[in-house]
Amino acid sequence: MRFRPFRFVPFHRLPVRYLAPNLVTAGNMMLGLAAVWSAFRGQVELAAWLIVWACFLDGLDGVLARLLNARSHFGIEFDSLADHVSFGLAPAALIASYADNLGIGVWDGSRHSWLVLAPVTFYVVMAGVRLARYNVQTLELGEMLFRGLPTTMCAGIVSVLILTLIKHGNPVHSRDGVLIFTSVVAGGFGLLMVSNLPLPKFRKRRIRVYGMIESVLAGILIILGFMRRMPEVLLAASCIYCIGGVFVGKRFERAYFREQERRLNMAKEAERALTRISEADDEIEDDEEEDEESREEGTISSIP
Q1: CB 65, CB 71: distance < 8 Å
Q2: Residue 1: what pLDDT?
Q3: Where are the domains of the chain?
Q4: What is the DSSP code (8-state) at residue 195?
Q5: Between the CA of residue 127 and those of 39, 74, 179, what are the distances in Å?
Q6: φ and ψ at 145, to 5 degrees?
Q7: What is the pTM of this model?
Q8: For residue range 116-152, what is the model confidence (pLDDT) as tens digits?
């Protein structure tokens, strides 16, 4: 079972190692709130970069929890709440603010505002569903694969996509184009979050060279993110990881279930073999009993 009843631990008795990952999670939530406020004020670029930084912190808290052996049920729930703020509410506010800056009048209550607010509301709800499903999913493949695109990945792609469009002069200018863009981005990523697409997690690789390459690439992306440079590189890297990861995840999933089927067949064969052995033992016992009865009958008939 994934969860046990929560036992309250006084703050002064809490091991210090649990503070570090939870403080990083709190920082993730604060960046998400700052992104929401920035989006409401029309500072779209700042809001997008704040979401990107929150993505980095979301990865850091998990790393710290594993290194310090500080994983807990509280940390899981706290991380989910922070993720819903930073990767559910903040990207929705970012998309709405981007559309508002392009003349849709989202915050002014124009007649077209609902065409933006409806898909971004859908995005927020799907982010909540995705996080709740992740918390209660079974452990089958759970340590190796994501089911559906993580909220962190979706929020990061949305942010760097908008940053790339702003950097290249906002090629989408028309009202219809902006409405289509917001509907496709918010609705599409909302559906991808609750899909069953398998995506491999970042884990320590058995082949050290692959692990080193991943670490170097991740370091470069983090540096670019904190320097607020080259969002198109971050966008390309995220898309390559998602598209390539789905194909790798599908192959891994098929291999995993083939192995499970092979083990199940082996268990069935072993069970059938044990059944045959048991039946043979029963037949031998029956034969011995018949032989003993026949010997007893022969002994009785030989008595004058």
Answers
A1: yes
A2: 41
A3: 12-260
A4: S
A5: 18, 20, 21
A6: -130, 145
A7: 0.78
A8: 899 999 999 999 999 988 877 655 555 667 788 889 9
